[in-house]
Design a protein that fits this description.
Helix content of chain A: 10-25%
Distance between the termini of chain B: 30 Å
Largest sheet of chain A: 5 strands, antiparallel
Radius of gyration of chain B: 21 Å
CATH class of the largest domain in chain B: Alpha Beta
CATH superfamily of the largest domain in chain B: Nitrile hydratase alpha /Thiocyanate hydrolase gamma
Largest sheet of chain B: 2 strands, parallel
Structural class of chain A: alpha+beta
CATH class of chain A: Mainly Beta
Strand content of chain B: 5-15%
Order of helices and strands of chain A: HEEHEHEE
Oligomer: heterodimer
Strand order of the largest sheet of chain A: 4-3-2-1-5
Shape of chain A: flat
Number of strands of chain A: 5
Strand content of chain A: 25-35%
CATH topology of the largest domain in chain B: Nitrile Hydratase, Chain A
Shape of chain B: globular
Number of domains of chain A: 1
């Protein structure tokens, strides 16, 4: 009897997550910050655009797109921010501190691609 | 600092002080702020009472709250673990509310890692736990240099970090704020939680300074 109900439970699909509900990237993923030049309000500083890094953590909870929200527009479905780790030497070719030094920055999912 | 120019004991006490008044014209942003505020009030979107209340909220937030959080983390390993897992909910345990819908990541300094916080785009700062940021935190030289030459910036604050210690600069850009959990200084084993809190400075919680019992005003 017990075995039977277990089998049934396995066959029943779980709740389906909405688009954007589950983070696309995981801790440890190699990513690149996109090179885009939006006019007006943006949350990705120019000095990290195009730089390669690694996802250190998914930031919870998911949030709306601050760049859209700034114009009072419906910012749409929520996506995640990620805490991205980037070595200073990747950002500044002439970085003079220790090669261990690094940056951490939160980047919205729409600004990231796999690298 | 105007102290050099106007030390209160540098002049005879029967000197007439000039009246305190606004002599310069308000700047562009002062005028804009006044205009927007008056419009919002006129259109009944907010009232003067709400503006005053929010100023009271901000005025009630000072680095003393952050010091309390740090001292508790130093004496209570369970709290420390909760603080590092979720900064916001751990602060809320101590009655520190987050009125601005931000999350808080607490960054622990260790023998191998030294953390520094900055907001290169503007002036994001953990206001619920530290209050208003210092002026230098909002100015472009700090914002630009903290991410490009953090060791030089730290040295100007008198903070020299050994080369084998990793410097992690966290740039706040959106919904997360950061607070540095400084290293508990040597020689404080006998300190009470309150005495420990007295050692913790704002600059140490931003990461531009470390805490040193020798140079701190040691609470007795």
């Amino acid at each position: 009897m017990q075995n039977e109900s277990r089998a049934t439970a396995k066959a029943t699909p779980g709740p389906v997550a909405a688009l954007g509900e589950e983070p696309v990237f995981r801790a440890g993923d190699a990513v690149r910050i996109l090179t885009r030049s939006p006019i007006g309000h943006y949350r990705v500083p120019t000095y990290v655009r195009g730089k390669k890094g690694r996802v250190e953590a998914v930031i919870q909870p998911a949030g709306i797109d601050n760049e859209e929200e700034a114009y009072g527009r419906n910012a749409g479905s929520k996506l995640h921010y990620y805490r991205i780790a980037i070595p200073m030497t990747e950002i500044w070719s002439d970085y003079s501190g220790s090669p261990l030094d690094a940056l951490r920055i939160e980047v919205f999912e729409s600004w990231l691609e796999r690298s | 600092m105007n102290q050099g120019r106007h030390d209160p004991h540098d002049h005879p006490h029967d000197d007439r002080h000039s009246e305190i008044s606004q002599s310069a014209h308000p700047g562009y942003f002062d005028v804009m702020e006044t205009a927007v505020r008056e419009l919002l009030v006129e259109k009944r979107l907010i009232g003067p009472g709400e503006i005053r209340r929010q100023i009271e909220v901000l005025d009630s937030r000072t680095p003393a709250l952050g010091s309390k959080v740090v001292a508790r983390a130093w004496v209570d390993p369970g709290f420390r673990a909760r603080l590092l897992a979720n900064g916001r909910s751990a602060c809320e345990e101590l009655g520190i509310s987050f009125y601005d819908d931000t999350q808080l990541i607490v960054l622990e300094n260790t023998d191998k890692v030294h953390n520094l916080i900055v907001c290169t785009l503007c002036s994001c700062y953990p206001r619920p736990v530290l209050g208003l940021p210092p002026d230098w935190y909002k100015l472009k030289p700090y914002r630009a240099r903290a991410v490009s030459e953090p060791r030089a910036v730290l040295a100007e604050f008198g903070t020299v970090i050994p080369a084998d210690v990793e410097i992690l600069v966290s740039d706040s850009t959106a919904m997360v704020r950061y607070l540095v959990l400084p290293k508990r200084p040597e020689g404080t084993r006998e300190y009470t939680e309150e005495q420990l809190a007295g050692l913790v400075t704002r600059d140490a919680m931003i990461g531009v300074a470390v805490i040193d019992v020798e140079t701190s005003g040691v609470p007795q």
